[in-house]
Amino acid sequence: MAPGLTLQAGYVALLVVGLLIIRKLLKQKSIYRLPPGPKPLPVIGNVLDLPPKAVPEFKHWFKHKDTYGPISSITVMGLPMIIFHDKEAAHSVMGKRAQKTSARPQLNFATLCGVENFLITHQYNDKYRKHRKLVHQKIGTKGLSAGFQPIQEKEALQFVLQTFNDPDNMMVYLKTKGPDPLVELIEHAMDNLSLAFVPLSWAIDAVPAIEYLPDWFPGTSYRKTARTWKATNEAAAELPYAFVKRQMALKAHQPSYVSDLLQQTMSQKGNNVDLDPIDEEAIKWTA
User: Fold this and answer.
1) In whole angstroms, how far apart are CA 73 and each of 33, 83, 93?
2) Whole-angstrom distance, CA of residue 54 vs CA of residue 56
3) DSSP 8-state assignment for residue 63
4) CA–CA separation, 160 vs 163, rounded Å?
5) Average pLDDT of each block of 10 consecutive residues along the chain (287 residues)?
6) Distance between CA 38 and CA 130 in Å, rounded?
7) SS3 7
8) 96-112 burial string, b = 16+ CB within 10 Å, else e?
9) pLDDT at 228
10) Contact (Cβ atoms closer than 8 angstroms) between residue 175 and residue 183
11) How many CA atoms lie within 13 Å of 168's alpha carbon, on the beta-carbon side?
């Protein structure tokens, strides 16, 4: 396609998407009564009420607590956001009414990154209940978690000694005894997870309609980032799991969350090493 035609097609696509967004936002009305908050502007909503980059979020929202009370709300590009300013209010809504309010936020960019496999992002469904049950079976009570105390005490002593001899590298020793590719990989995955869930920081969350634009169109670079982060997230689950399975095959493994669950599951299936894919996925991603 000639450059001139490509540019014209891009402008037409941008115009169509813009008109669709405006039409949707103008027609969109909440079926729920939202908590009090600043009056939104047409189309963009409360974009101007979001925290400036130089101001910590908690300080910015203090003004809302003084003006609107323990719970406030804003709407950005048609997306309502509820802000809790009070611990008791948060517990009342998210704790006592958890059956109705326990759903996790679903952000388009986070979904593209594959974070829906992590336990903390599950919706309240059968998959969540199965994964949570596995975690509870191994570390869900004080008695069960006490089984990890010997290794925790050993690592704590090692950390104290390392920090005493080299205090400048204390933060390094908090993570691992030395360079560890698996620890670094999981750190990257956790950093990506945190960034993926920052509200409206990604174009696809602010303007969902750009999902239908071609990859060459300006504003779609988030897709490349999402593919990279998804690969990192999958590696953070696959590689440690594969390492434990390999150690178990060599009879060289240490007691751990994964090895205990694998042994338990295999014993229930007649020591069959070929696990059900659902069981394997649950062990892998809850670890």
Assistant:
1) 10, 6, 14
2) 7
3) H
4) 5
5) 49 54 53 84 82 81 88 83 87 80 79 88 84 85 80 86 86 72 87 84 81 85 93 92 89 86 75 75 88
6) 41
7) helix
8) eeeeeeeebeebbbbbb
9) 95
10) yes
11) 0
| Residue linked to tokens 């047409």 | 42
Alpha-carbon distances, residue 202 vs 76, 207, 238 (angstroms): 13, 9, 27
Interhelix angle for 222-249 vs 257-268, to 10°?
70
- Asked if residues 239 and 186 have their Cβ atoms less than 8 Å apart, the reply is no
List residues bridging with 167 in a β-sheet: none
- Bridge partners of residue 73, in order along the sequence: 82
Q: What one-letter code names the amino acid at 287?
A: A
| 121: alpha, beta or left? (left if phi > 0; alpha if psi -120 to 50) | alpha
In DSSP notation, 226-281 reads: HHHHHHHHHHHHHHHHHHHHHHHHTT-PPP-HHHHHHHHHHHHTTS-SS--HHHHH
Q: What are phi and psi of 197, to 5 degrees?
A: -100, 10
For 152, the token pair is: 């925790």
> Which of helix, strand or coil describes residue 76?
strand
Cross-strand bridge partners of residue 44: none
- Residue 82 bridge partners (DSSP): 73
Q: Which residue has the tokens 């949570």?
A: 132
Instruction: For residue 14, give the amino acid letter.
Output: L
Check residue 233 and give its pLDDT.
92
